[in-house]
Write a structure and sequence with these properties.
By secondary structure, the protein is an alpha/beta fold. The structure holds zinc ion.
Amino acid sequence: MKKFILLTFDLEEFDLPQEYNIAIDKKTQMAVSTSGLLNLLAILKQHNLTATFFTTAHYAENNPSIIQKLVADGHEIASHLYYHSVYNTEHLLQSKQKLEAISQQKVSGIRIPRLKQFEYRLIKEAGYLYDSSLNPTYLPGRYNYFTKPRTLFTDEASSLLILPLSVSHKFRFPLFWLSFKNLYLPFYITLCKRILKKDDCLHLYFHPWEFTELNNFNLPWYIQRRSGQKMTNRLNDFISTMKKEASFIKVTDYLCKKSSKTLFQLRKDTEAKLPEEIKTTNKIDVELQLS
Ligand SMILES: [Zn+2]
């Protein structure tokens, strides 16, 4: 069985300090994300990898040239809703349209900020092919999805594809960004290899702002530790080891491999079931894709 690693990044305004009642202005929020992104892109380039960036439309409209650079470098843009801290159903479609206009690339997937859950039907109706917001584990005080599937599945009622984030098999230990930066790296890598022994895919997520030095923000130690250069070195070591185990690919490339369909066919299947007004928008995008 061929094995794949999906490196995904939530590219957003850095509003995390606000969760801890620390004020941070919009300009700094954008700057922290962008400076980390530039460090991250250098590693990806060094390893000749492309990745999927779940981006808020708010970040994209403030940094259009960066989005265009990502696309030109072969990366993929997906949605991370419109704003990082506003959970409005209308933003499902609006963020998609805004990101498509800026990137000139079709947006197929979404990850809701802070892994909040929206009704799958609504995500499907906004024209998305897949959702990537499910961390199938139990996080006290946040969510409990311990009994949900661990790997790619189709939500039957909406026919939306759901691509869960990777957790270990038995205990469902999450391999998300906090584990990556806090665990002893060889142990984290062992967990990843164990997942790849059973599954064909390892699906991880991080944030570009983790690649910026965060010591000045007074954040909890488990968030600000190993940021900036340490995080850059850590990801570099991780990729160097794991590229012997699996191929790093973008999310839509993985979905195409799983379904044996082209992205164009997958999107056409999605579009066929959409309300009329969204179909029209998508038609333009499909033409964009083909030209
Ligand atoms: Zn986020």
